[in-house]
């Protein structure tokens, strides 16, 4: 298995499916897309790690980002007060010529995420930027949770709240630290993970917030999560399949990292956790 070689490879448009593991993609992709598929090794097991290790120089790229870690805020990853904790002194705006914060402009409050059509709509509305740039990246949030069929996403809602609070604090808003109370689910996840200190049970407790309790009781956490994960992947692939004909050039579909469902005691994805489900990603060159 070769390295992903994300920026060193030849492409005009790269469609990044967040948290897309190779094996699930391999099972269903040909129902939606035609191309030559390889398994490649990502440089990161999470988005911050993947971005920090890939974008090290100056890159002429129009980047449509559904993921809040890749943003135009200008705040280094190691100074963010929301999301994953890391030591990476990296900002997208220092390395990428133009970043579109679709995680903000295309946000769907009911779903708790950016649906696939938010990314494609942002692309269509900014074709002038695409024409200016040497290459273009469209970073879709799916199949990453929250699972769209559930419509009760919690993960990105937590990040969105953190972004607003940090922006308010930097703007001198006295209400920043005493704003709206977090939801019960937000508090539950924070408290459980704090008490259990990142254990497997704590990871599963976080994932349970995205699942149907009845489905978990009937089928178990892994099967329930994998079913919704595959459905999320199908939703984004359906949107991509309708969209790619608009792209004139070499198109690649890949992922920043994968997703774990209990393998080696790991659930979801975490920084610097190089296990196969998290670093084995698809590399599909479309016909």
What is the compact description of this entry?
This protein has helices at 22-28, 47-54, 102-105, 116-125, 127-132, 155-170, 184-196, 200-208, 213-219, 221-243, 276-279; strands at residues 2-3, 13-17, 35-41, 59-65, 96-101, 135-140, 251-254, 260-261, 267-268, 280-286.
**According to CATH, what is the class?**
Alpha Beta
As a whole number of angstroms, the C-alpha radius of gyration is: 18 Å
How do the strands of the widest beta sheet line up side by side?
A: 1-3-10-7-2-6-4-5
Q: Please describe the biggest sheet, giving its number of strands, its sense, and whether it closes into a barrel.
A: 8 strands, mixed
SSE string, helices as H and strands as E: EEHEHEEHHHEHHHHHEEEHE
Number of helices: 11
Gross CATH architecture: 3-Layer(aba) Sandwich
Number of strands: 10
Instruction: Report the CATH topology name.
Output: Alkaline Phosphatase, subunit A
Mean pLDDT: 84
Amount of helix:
25-40%
SSE-based structural type: alpha/beta
Estimate the strand proportion.
15-25%
| Tally of separate domains | 1
Query: Which residues sit in consecutive blocks of at least 5 with pLDDT less than 50?
Result: 174-197
Descriptive report:
The chain is an alpha/beta fold. It has one domain (8-286): Alkaline Phosphatase, subunit A (3-Layer(aba) Sandwich). Helix content is 37%, strand content 17%. It has 11 helices and 10 strands. The strands form 2 sheets. An 8-stranded mixed β-sheet has the order 1-3-10-7-2-6-4-5. It has a two-stranded antiparallel sheet with strand order 8-9. β8 and β9 form a beta hairpin. The longest helix is centred in the C-terminal third of the chain and has 23 residues, at 221-243. The chain is globular, with a radius of gyration of 18 Å. It starts with a strand and ends with a strand.
């Amino acid at each position: 298995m070769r390295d992903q070689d994300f920026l060193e490879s030849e492409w005009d448009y790269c469609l990044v499916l967040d948290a897309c593991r190779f094996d699930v993609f391999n099972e269903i992709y040909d129902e939606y897309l035609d191309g030559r598929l390889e398994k490649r090794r990502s440089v990161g097991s999470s988005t911050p790690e993947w971005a920090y290790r890939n974008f090290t120089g100056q890159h002429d790229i129009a980047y449509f980002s559904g993921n809040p870690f890749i943003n135009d805020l200008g705040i280094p990853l190691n100074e963010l007060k929301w999301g994953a904790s890391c030591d990476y002194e990296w900002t997208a705006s220092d390395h990428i010529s133009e970043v579109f914060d679709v995680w903000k402009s295309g946000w769907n409050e009911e779903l708790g995420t950016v649906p696939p059509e938010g990314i494609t709509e942002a692309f269509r509305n900014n074709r002038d930027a695409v024409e200016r740039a040497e290459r273009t990246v469209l970073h879709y949030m799916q199949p990453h949770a929250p699972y769209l069929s559930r419509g009760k996403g919690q993960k990105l809602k937590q990040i969105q709240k953190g972004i607003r609070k940090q922006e308010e604090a930097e703007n001198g808003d006295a209400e920043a630290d005493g704003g709206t109370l977090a939801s019960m689910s937000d508090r539950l996840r924070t408290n459980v993970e704090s008490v259990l200190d990142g254990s497997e049970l704590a990871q599963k407790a976080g994932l349970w917030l995205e699942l149907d309790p009845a489905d978990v009781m009937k089928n178990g956490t892994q099967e329930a999560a994998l079913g919704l994960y595959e459905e999320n992947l199908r939703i984004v692939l359906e949107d991509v399949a309708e969209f790619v004909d608009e792209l004139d050039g070499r198109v690649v579909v890949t992922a920043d990292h994968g997703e774990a469902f209990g393998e080696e005691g790991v659930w979801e994805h975490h920084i610097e956790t190089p296990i196969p489900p998290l670093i084995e990603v698809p590399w599909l060159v479309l016909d």
